[in-house]
Amino acid sequence: MAVRRVSPEEALELIDKEGYVYVDVRSVPEFSAGHPAGAVNVPLLHTSAFGMSPNHEFVEVMEKAFPKNAKLVVGCRAGSRSLQAATILQSVGYSNVVEQRGGFEGSGGFFGRGEPGWRQKGFPVSQEAPPENTWDGLRTRTLS
Is 76 a catalytic residue? Predict the structure, then answer.
């Protein structure tokens, strides 16, 4: 089954009205620089001296942090990683996963005709997060 993709407006409505949780799959530094308010950071990839490397704990942490019927909006910078992450989550049994098109920063698209992202829409953004919403806090809580 194809992943349901939603606009930033639809994502915000799902969060505000239906109790979805925004899972930001960007790297820790990207998340720290700014993210949707209330988001949880579970990176699909980690930054390293050589670029990006897979987060081999992604599925394990997700499965310990969220039940398979959790309502999740998955987002990233522009939409590529989030679509990959949402597909992975569906493949391991998550049933209420949607992917936010355009991500946090917006997708470029051809001739600048991409989709604006969360930040460009002026939706709530934060650089703060409670420890349980950060990768380190979530990883420690779920894998200890």
Answer: yes
